[in-house]
């Protein structure tokens, strides 16, 4: 009887502990094997995939973002965290049930014309997917017309424009102007990101926000898409 009571008392903390450990291991960049092993442990304890993603992986990634903002982590650490998350999400993919993971909204994403860089875009994409967003990625060097066409086709709540090169910055305004000309600008929030962008530039070109890192970008998407 005593043993049974002890087991019952420990059962709740166990479930919480494994999720805390997932977030902690990811935040500490302990590698995909260790994180995946903990994810498998959580699933074996009948913890839902949504809880693993929301209360484990997503919180760990938020901690990575906080360390990056504090100057404790740099781009190399962000890339490694993204690779860990990508590998674990690939493992979880067959288990992701649309009915179980509530989609928070749709993001259309791409790097603007004239820019072939995708590192920041890909980090944001993986962070957004882990947070429950559906992301349609147009890749790099995307023509303004394609952003508009795809916005009309899939009707995303967020359009994410990535730009690393200052020479490609004018392309952001081209896209926004074309959205206005097509009379769909008021139907989508425009989020810009990348090393070339600033908050001031976002205001100048009529974007809704500029994100200086992936976590800030996902936080904006959450606030912009409210139930």
* Range of helix content: 55-70%
- End-to-end span in angstroms? 47 Å
What oligomeric state is this? single chain
Gyration radius over CA: 19 Å
Q: Tell me the CATH superfamily of the largest domain.
A: Cobalamin-binding domain
Which strand order do you get reading across the main beta sheet? Answer: 2-1-3-4-5
Entry keywords:
227 residues; alpha/beta; Methyltransferase, Methionine Synthase (B12-binding Domains), Chain A, domain 1; Rossmann fold; 5-stranded parallel sheet; 9 helices; 10% strand; globular; disordered N terminus
Can you walk through the features of this model?
This protein has 227 residues and is an alpha/beta fold. The protein has two domains: 2-95, Methionine synthase domain (Methyltransferase, Methionine Synthase (B12-binding Domains), Chain A, domain 1, Orthogonal Bundle); 106-224, Cobalamin-binding domain (Rossmann fold). 58% of the residues lie in helices and 10% in strands. The chain has nine helices and five strands. It has helices at 2-27, 32-44, 49-69, 75-92, 119-130, 144-154, 170-181, 199-205, 214-224; strands at residues 106-111, 134-137, 158-162, 189-193, 209-211. It has a five-stranded parallel sheet with strand order 2-1-3-4-5, sandwiched between helices. α1 (2-27) packs antiparallel against α2 (32-44), α2 runs parallel beside α4 and α5 crosses α9. The protein is globular, with a radius of gyration of 19 Å. Mean pLDDT is 86; it is low at 1-13.
What's this, in brief?
The chain is 58% helix and 10% strand. The chain is an alpha/beta fold.
